[in-house]
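TICKET: design request
STATUS: open
ATTACHED STRUCTURE:
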């Protein structure tokens, strides 16, 4: 019995695409290596034959198999067994079968959702600017930026790969920063490795201008700066929190109150936030730490008020940076998303012309 662990298909596909692009840029001599890598991917999905030995006698079959093919998780093997992709002596295997130690097992590996994560998908993208070096997108609320648990397809990354196939050769399809699924607004993508690297360095140097509009409950002071480090919430690992823990990272948000109104007979304020750093959920956590949670925020807001708006009222409205190829100072501004505009109108607030 000869078993060779294989890489996950998603990793292999992505590495294959990246390596192929880089080899092509270097000398154009990559066809043979690429063919070998494609063969590896095909092999990872080829049938696997196992001959059990007496020491497996009395053990659950799924446990025995998971030890023999560690490249696949036990839960995935159980799914394949339930779906009929594992057979024992020619008959479909059952998850709770007991092994006798002399059976022949055949596994027909199947791709998992995450194996399709880095594949191009047709998608209508709201492109604000595009040239050969960068792409600026106005992301709608509800669109996940990067594949992950529960969202292995239909993400912005999948749409970018379809719109611009060359992004298969750039890490994360050129994405340099993210917006939460339910946050709308501007994002920049580096279309080449050089552009992406330059943009990342600008973000690290805190020279990228990122301004957001947020509608919050209550009436904060006219302006201020929130300088409060952030880390994972100590009890709820899905959430972030202001923290003084040694793992906390610096986080700075500058804000200005632009207008006030009433929503559901409660005071609300339209606030402009400017990020100096870009931590996960930074604006949502910082404003909540002052007692002014975002309208519609089901994670950091007040549960009894979440029905007022189906998402956090937050939009990346302005983006400014230095063009990585030309050195030109660039800036883009987008109007509020229709649902956000409708929300502030309901609160009796007019969208500022230009701030």
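STATUS: resolved
RESOLUTION: sequence designed for all positions
ATTACHED SEQUENCE:
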């Amino acid at each position: 019995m000869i078993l060779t662990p294989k890489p996950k298909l998603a990793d292999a596909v992505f590495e294959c695409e990246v390596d192929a692009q880089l080899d092509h840029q270097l000398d154009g001599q990559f066809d043979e290596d690429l063919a070998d890598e494609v063969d590896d991917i095909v092999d990872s999905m080829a049938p696997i034959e196992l001959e059990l030995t007496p020491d497996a006698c009395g053990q659950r079959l799924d446990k025995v198999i998971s030890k023999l093919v560690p490249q696949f998780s036990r839960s995935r093997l159980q799914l394949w067994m339930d779906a009929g992709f594992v057979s024992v002596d020619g008959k479909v295997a059952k998850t709770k079968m007991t092994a006798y130690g002399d059976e022949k097992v055949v596994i027909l590996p199947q791709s998992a959702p995450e194996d399709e994560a880095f594949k191009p998908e047709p998608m209508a993208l709201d492109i604000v600017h595009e040239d050969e070096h960068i792409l600026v997108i106005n992301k709608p609320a509800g669109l996940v930026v990067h594949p992950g648990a529960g969202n292995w397809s239909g993400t912005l990354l999948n749409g970018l790969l379809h719109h611009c196939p060359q992004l298969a050769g750039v890490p994360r399809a050129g994405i340099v920063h993210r917006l939460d699924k339910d946050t709308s607004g501007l994002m920049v993508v580096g279309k080449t490795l050089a552009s992406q690297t330059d943009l990342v360095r600008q973000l690290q140097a805190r020279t990228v201008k990122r301004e957001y509009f947020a509608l919050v409950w209550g009436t904060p002071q006219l302006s201020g700066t929130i300088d409060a480090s952030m880390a994972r919430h100590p009890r709820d690992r899905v959430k972030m929190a202001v923290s003084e823990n040694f793992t906390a990272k610096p986080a700075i948000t500058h804000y200005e109150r632009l207008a006030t109104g009433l929503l559901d007979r409660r005071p609300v304020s339209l606030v402009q936030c400017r990020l100096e750093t870009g931590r996960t959920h930074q604006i949502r956590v910082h404003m909540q730490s002052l007692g002014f949670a975002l309208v519609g925020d089901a994670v950091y807001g007040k549960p009894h008020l979440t029905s007022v708006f189906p998402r956090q009222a937050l939009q990346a409205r302005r983006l400014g940076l230095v063009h990585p190829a030309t050195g030109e100072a660039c800036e883009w501004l987008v109007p509020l998303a229709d649902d956000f505009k409708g929300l502030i109108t309901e609160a009796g607030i007019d969208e500022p012309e230009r701030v």
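CLOSING REMARK: The radius of gyration is 25 Å. Residues 265 and 347 are 9 Å apart (CA to CA).
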